[in-house]
Amino acid sequence: MKRSHKLTTAILLGFGLLSVANAADGEIKINGSIQTQGSKALYENDSENDLDGFWIRGNLGVKYTADDFEATINFRMWSTAFNSGTEIITPQLYFGNYKWALEQNKFNLKFGHWETDWSVGGNFGTYLDKKIGTHAFMGRAGAGQDGVELGWNFGPSTLNAMVATTYDPDDPNSKTPFNRGYLRLEDNLKLGKPVELTLAYRVNALDPMLKPAVITHRAGLKAAYTVLPSLKLYGELGYINTGKDDEVKKDADGTWTSSVKPEYAQDTYYLPFYIGLEVPTAGILSNLMFEVEYIKDREELVAGSDELAWSVAAVKKLGRTKIQLSLFSEKEISDPALGLRVTTSL
Fold it and tell me: Does the reported pTM lie above 0.90?
């Protein structure tokens, strides 16, 4: 979707949601933050820059909450220095969520644009929704999509079923909404206070409805066990399997017009996983986490990458400000880099 169309959609949806909010009995809350982030390799990487990555951005939004409806609209702002010489304000999140309660059952219907951030850790995870293989400082933020989701909460289970569209700038089939897309199922299980367990499945079921396409099945399991408030063992396991079809290939001119570009190379499967340990620091830090990730044949996905990756992450909250500092491996485990993000909330 073009940026101008996204902005127009967000504004129209925003006016609609605020109209509902004005007529209903609920709470409106303004939220926002200023964020800056920088990273630097601690090894010789032939970079002539003082920093390998740096940006500053602003976030501003409004959230409406009521018993039967909630809505969120957030905008992200970049200056000319960090967006190819053009100042930009772009919608990041905009969705509405209707809620109903029927005896012991709770239902919700969500529509709009939002992120599915599936990780329980720092730098790794979210295998269900993000392209695996790459890793960097805070490199696994949520994956955004436009879609509709139905949720059902009963007993220890919260089940969500989503239909969402996929956008790939290299695939012209995805430039028309819902010419490409997927089904996503997620079940959060509350098995007791110290245990967190979530199962999920995603399949690009909309892709082959119009043109030849191969199916990629993704399954995920994330779990966490909290021993003490700041002592937690956690991790995530993914399974990604892509089929094969000789009809699915580039056209003679090198485009993907006649068939759908596969999510991963055909006839491949991966079992990515990571494990993490959060340890207490006697109140010195808010969080201190150690993580290790393994993806067999990662070099097929990112040339020159080791199968193993590691990260040490520290978080400190000071009033409205959160400081996140990570030491992590880049492509090779012997290539450390340092990243820092500072977020100040309004």
Answer: no
